Amino acid sequence: MDVAGRAGKVRAALAEAGCDALLVTHLPNIRWLTGFTGSAAQLLVRGDDLVLVTDGRYSEQGPAELAAAGAAASVEVLANPGEQDELIDRLTRGLARVGLESDHLTWARQRTLAAGVLTGRDLVATESLVDALRSVKDPGEVARIEAAAAAVDAALAAVLPLLLDRPTERAVALALDDEIRARGTDGPAFETIVATGANGARPHARPGERTVEAGHLVVVDAGAVVDGYRSDMTRTYSIGPPGPDARRLLDAVAAAQAAGVAAARAGVPARAVDAACRGSLDGAGLGHLFLHGTGHGIGLEVHEAPAVSARSAATLAAGTVVTIEPGAYLAGVGGVRFEDTVAVTEAGCRSLTHAPKDPVLS
Ligand code: ZN
Ligand code: ZN
User: Fold this and answer.
1) For residue 322, which ligand has an atom nearest its CA?
2) What is the pLDDT of residues 237-290, one digit of tens each?
3) Using an 8 Å Cβ cutoff, are 290 and 326 in contact?
4) Most exposed: 213, 235, 307, 344, by fewest CB within 10 Å?
5) Going by C-beta distance under 8 Å and a sequence separation of 6 or more, which residues neighbour residue 305?
6) Spacing, Cα 329 to ligand 2 middle (Å)
7) Cα of 28 to ligand 1 centre, how many Å?
8) 109 shares its domain with 151
9) Which of 96, 117, 134 is a domain's end point?
């Protein structure tokens, strides 16, 4: 990963936004710019340097992580928020316009900065400035997401036989989480979803004590973390031969997901991928059962820019990593969702998820 080269991209975007500096407060953005993984820090990006401000818990870890990432940033360790704010004041004196991350700052913090710490400087509400840059991954980032996706593919393959033993949703989720950890990852990327039968009609159902029975559709949605980078995938299985309603859902959603994958390419608006999935399901007469957006960017966060939805203003670029995950949810029958994490290329996209989509288990 080229961590050191990222600050230059932020400075170019800052110049475009008319800012002399940016106070980065969103921790995943700080990690992306410096390699810092701690739970408390602010990062000031100025024209000629980067200053990470953190507290005593990170006096050793902070400089070590920045050095390991090759980030050209200095680290200032100050015990309390008041001292940290005094330093940010000193470091920004003489600068006319300081950008803040409007998507990530609390209202209270904005008021403190505007009415005290940064008085006299124009505060600029930047929107998704670092987030937009983060959405295009370098090869090192794609490799980490791919490793996370591969671990989930293998973990899922190991757990599938369990689905035929009438397990509870919770037992399947726990087994999958264990397999994900056993494959050298940092663990699951989010709370694993296992939703069987009618419970599957809720897109974000939590695993409970329902048992997986013959005739059920089972939705399994899981991801892993490798060196901070996340993957996300969903498969749906029919326990035994599916009934006619279930078959129709399975075929239509698989076709919609393939249509979305076929539409993804550098230069294409993200909303066109959403439209491809939605159009496919509409054609099957099931568009009204598709209850959410088609996908999301993924990387240091499980949901990050760009959104893949009808309202998304983003354009896909080579290196953008997104999920493509249409679904259909029929009350009383259950749900079907197929989700791959894909890396966009000039010619199309490359799936980082390789688990088979054959839905019938018997
Ligand atoms: Zn998912
Ligand atoms: Zn997802």
Assistant:
1) 2
2) 999 999 999 999 999 999 999 999 999 999 999 999 999 999 999 999 999 999
3) yes
4) 213
5) 128, 131, 132, 134, 135, 297, 314
6) 16
7) 20
8) no
9) 134
